[in-house]
Structure formats: C-alpha cells, structure tokens
Amino acid sequence: MTHNLLVLGGTTEATALCRRLAEDGIAGTISFAGRVERPVRQPLPQRVGGFGGVAGLVTYLKEAGVTHVVDATHPFAAQMSAHAVAACQEAGVPLIALTRAPWAAQEGDQWQHVPDIAGAVAALDRPASRVMLAVGRMHLAEFAPNPQHVYLLRLVDPPKEDLPFPDCHVVVDRGPFSEDGDLALMREHGIELVVSKNAGGTGAAAKISAARKLGLPVIMIDRPAIPPRAEAHGVDEVLRWLDHGATDRGV
Ligand code: 3Y8
Ligand code: NAP
Question: Which of 97, 126, 179, 187 matches a 20 to 30 Å C-alpha distance to 71?
C-alpha cells in the first residue's frame, strides 16, 4: 500500500523519524502546533497550526488521505495526544505513538516528585532560593505565587510579554542541550534548585544530570495521563508497525 503518514511532531524523536521516512521514501507530513517562531527545518513537508479540535483532525485525516498517524509529540502534549486517539478511532486510521520512557531517579539524584504544574508551584512555597525553572514559556504565569525566588528561565523565543517574576534572568535557547552547557549555566547562576518536567528522552536531560553532578535537588513534574494507544519507543519499531500492514483493528 502507498503510505501517506501524518507525524505529530515537536520532539527529537519526531525529527529522527522524519529523517528515516525521507531516507526510505515513505511519504508523509510533519505537523507543528506553531508554538515557536521558527520550528526546526524537517526533511518532510510540514504544516503548522492546530487542526481545530478532534473534528478538525478527523476532517484533515480524510481530506489529506492520511493512511497512518504517528503521534511523536512531547509527553506533556496531552491534549494533542488525546485528540489523536479520538480522531483516529473515528476516522478508522491506524495510530501509534512514538514516545520515550520517563526518566527514573539514579544514584545521587535528589528528586521531589509532584503530580503536575500546580504541584510544582506548591513545592516552591519555601524560603527564597535560586531556581532554574526550565519548563518553557506556556505555564510560567502559574509560577507567579512564589516571587521570593530568583529564577533562571530558559525560553525558545525572546519573551514578548512581561515575565511574572520580580527577579529573573532569561536565557533564550532551544535544545537539545548538553550536560557541560547546563553545568556551566547552573554554576554561573548559582542555581540551588531545578524544576523540570519528566520529559524523558535526551533533549531535555542535560539539566537533570547536571543537577546530579552538582548535588542539587530537583522538583520533578510527572506526566499527564494520556488515553491508551499503541506505543513504540524507537524509529525501527514504527517502521515495523508500518510494514506489518497496520490497520486500525490490527487485522
Ligand atoms: C514547537 C519545535 C527536535 C525537537 C527538539 C525534546 C527535545 C529540544 C528540550 C529545558 C527544557 C521544554 C520545551 C524542550 C525541549 C526538544 C525538542 C524540546 C524543553 C521545540 C519545538 C517546539 C517546541 C515547543 C516548546 C514548548 C515548551 C517545550 C521548551 C522545534 C524547540 C521546556 C519542554 O515558547 C514556547 O511556546 C515553547 C513551548 C511547548 C514547553 C512549554 O510549556 O513552554 N517545547 N520546542 C513545537 C510545535 O510548534 O509544535 O522548533 O524543533 C522542540 C523541542 N523542544 O526536532 O530536535 O524532544 O523534548 N521544549 C520540556 O521538556 O520541559 C526545554 O530548557 O531544559
Ligand atoms: P497540547 O497542549 O497537547 O495541544 C494543544 C493544542 O495545540 C492541540 O489541541 C492542537 O490544537 C495543537 N497542537 C498541539 N500539538 C500539535 C501538533 N504537533 N500539530 C498541530 N497542532 C498541534 O500541546 P502542547 O503541549 O502545547 O505542545 C505543542 C507542541 O509543542 C507539540 O508539537 C509538542 O510536541 C511540542 N512540545 C511540547 C512540549 C511541552 O512541554 N508541552 C515540549 C516539547 C515539545 P487543535 O485542537 O486546534 O488541533
């Protein structure tokens, strides 16, 4: 069968998958939400912007003649992933997620697990400290209730609006990040505490290994729940799924 994939992107794994699909001559499109000004160039055609909810995605799948969907979005892109499950079910299009296991604490890690962003905000209700808040831009306002800290923020694009903290320093940079780079950054800013999403994978892991090396505590935000779906943890597994004539009921 001729393939026409839709890859829901925005992660290191999505980029690796698109490179392999292009090499293997498998047709597809990678999709971004349009969160940042310049999504990284991809080796497949790309589309940018929401689909318009589940209904919009169903319409897109039908009108574009999509044969398979690979949800390679970030583990915290829970709404997109939930919409993909519902829309593929409704449209009868096979779906697999290309995801990555959560990070697990290693010897020397000092992690405090919190269930969500609100849990991280509650955990920051403590005496003033120098905090690396590397959770991106979209949820910064939720961290406003703890102005006592000095924050180091890392954003993909320069901030357009005022930041909700009286004392913060912004680094504009996009990952994947390196451990040496994050060690230098954390030492330069005298970081005493790190707040992180449990993204898994390698692109955001540098600050976690740097915190371990520096003996710093980490407030680790656990992932949001996502409805059950087929999951792959590597590009080869996705290609095998495609070759085995994946259908929506696996028959
Ligand atoms: C727009 C598309 C690739 C993809 C690379 C990965 C790794 C580098 C590390 C820190 C943590 C954070 C953030 C992060 C990383 C990868 C991956 C990843 C974390 C780009 C990209 C898009 C986004 C969206 C952006 C969010 C933000 C989150 C920054 C491209 C660069 C914090 C997540 O300013 C904004 O609006 C940013 C929004 C969603 C989370 C947030 O809540 O703000 N990612 N990141 C995607 C779209 O439009 O659909 O330009 O490549 C992609 C990547 N960011 O191809 O190599 O695979 O995770 N992204 C987190 O993990 O905590 C930074 O600073 O240590
Ligand atoms: P989200 O909250 O799960 O999704 C919100 C809405 O954004 C979706 O309902 C959809 O709009 C649109 N959307 C999300 N991802 C899309 C995609 N790949 N293509 C087209 N539309 C998309 O998503 P998010 O957490 O904001 O993440 C947005 C993007 O950033 C994703 O591509 C994700 O992989 C990437 N990213 C996110 C994080 C993170 O920490 N959240 C980290 C790294 C990368 P409609 O309902 O209109 O279709």
Answer: 179
Q: Which ligand 2 atom is at minimum distance from the Cα of 8?
A: 18
How far out from the chain centre does Cα 211 lie? 20
Q: Which atom of ligand 1 is nearest to the CA of 139?
A: 42
Asked whether residue 8 is assigned to any structural domain, the reply reads yes
Angle value at C-alpha 135, between 121 and 187, nearest 5 degrees: 95
Residue 226 CA to ligand 2 center (angstroms) comes to 13
Asked if 93 contacts 68 with a C-beta cutoff of 8 angstroms, the reply is: yes
Residue 116 shares a structural domain with residue 201 = yes
Enclosing domain of residue 202: 110-221
Q: Which amino acid is at 123?
A: A
- pLDDT at residue 250, as a whole number: 44
Mutation to probe ligand 1, out of 15, 35, 140 (largest number of atoms < 8 A from CB): 35
| Ligand 1 centroid distance, CA of 171 (Å) | 14
Which residues on adjacent β-strands are paired with residue 29?
6
| Whether residue 143 is found in the same domain as residue 235 | no
- Quote the pTM value: 0.95
What's the number of domains the chain is made of? 2
